[in-house]
Each structure stands twice: as C-alpha cells, then as structure tokens.
Amino acid sequence: MPVLVASDLDRTLIYSAAALALTMPDARAPRLLCVEVHERAPLSFMTETAAGLLTDLGDAAVFVPTTTRTRKQYLRINLPGPTPKYAITANGGHLLVDGVSDPDWHAGVTARLAEQCAPLEEVREYLENTADPLWLRKHRIAEDLFAYLVVERELLPEEWVKELAAWAENRGWTVSLQGRKIYAVPKPLTKSAAVREVARRTGAELTLAAGDSLLDADLLLAADRGWRPGHGELADAEWAAPGITALPERGVLAGERILREFLRATCGK
Which terminal residue of the chain, N or C, has fewer Cβ atoms less than 10 Å from its own Cβ? Predict the structure, then answer.
C-alpha cells in the first residue's frame, strides 16, 4: 500500500528570503534553489539538498502539497521531483487532481461552510471595520472561502489579534497569525478532510504530515506520524500531541530535516 505524505509548504518545505533563518557564517550557508518566482522576482527557496530529498520522496510515496495558498498562488511554485497528482489548496477548499479542482469536492466544502459557520461576508465586514490603516497593508478574500490581511507586524497590536480570535471563535472561525499575514478561516475548512479523501482514493494506509501553523494542527492530528519545525505558531505555543515530533531546526534547514524524516519513515533512508 502506498504511503501518503501531506505537507504544508510555506515555512515548512519552502521559505521566503525573510524566513530562511541562516544563522551560520556566509561561507557555510547551504546552496539554495529558487522554487517560486513572482512578478519576475525570486520569492521562495529550499536548499539544494532538500530538492534532492523531495525528488526521492516523490518517487517513493504519494506526495501531496497541502497549503492555505489559493490555486493561483500554488501553481506558480515549481517544486523539484515528479509533479504531484494531488494537491490541496485553499486550506482544503480545493482538491486538485492533475492541476484541476475536483468540482464535487469543492461543492461539498461550500455546502458544509454554509451549514456550520457564519458567512464570509460577516467576517469581511468585521475585518474592514476594525483593522487600523496604521498597520493594515492589504485585505484579501481567497477563493471566496476565507479572508486574510497583510500587516506591518511590528505595529500590529497583540490585543487586536486576541479580540479578533475571540470574535471569530463564537462564529465558527479560526484566526492564525503567520509572519505578516493574519488569516480568518472557517473551522469546517480543513486540510485534514481533504487529506483523508486523498488517502481513500489512493488506498494509503500510512499518512505522514508536517506543518508549522495553527492551521496545520488538524492535519498533524489526522496523520499517523507528524513533524513540526522549531519555528512558527505551533512551536511558539509549544504545541504537542501523540505521534508528533517537535524538531529543533528552524528556517530552511527545518525543511531539509522534515524531508529526511519523511524518507526515513517511508522507506528507511
């Protein structure tokens, strides 16, 4: 039976320049491979070693990129190795099969959201009415499923984030702060549900997962084994659960370590 490997991407396997966390002397820094270009500028990276590990993993397991990115944002990433047949985007809102969203899956997701949580429009209005232009840089709606803000992190009041989280909790939504982005996501919109569907379709009996943010917690809990890096929301909260390994590595080297762990669990390498 195949092994299914479902991994978050940003700040788990791939890293922006600001998130690389290269603490070693320049001469000892790892060689980097650019895996995403946006508006003709390099945007995301992994180490060349990690690229080789991901290629090996794609040959040995069913590798499923599992991200909160929109479809458009995901499709501009050029990962090394075999092109994944399945990918999960919009935090589980879209299940891509050979790059195309499965319409039945998406219809089922939107029906659950309509039944189980407050509408997106209510959340959008709250964000627009309470976010301060002093620290707000962008306000975005993603795939008509959830909302996120781009902020000046150093100016962002911690109390505002707590108030938003409490307000959202009462309406069936979750708030996640990742770098310069604040996500407001419906609770029924989960990566884990989509991963279970891929496991059903592929017949996988072992599921491995990795992620760094609050939005990855359900993914990790749904897996047989999981890993989180030494940075991110989960690390900051010292989040732990049975079967989940907290790694000490931070930044781009954490991505390399996660891929080593995936390969070791998949085929003993």
Answer: N
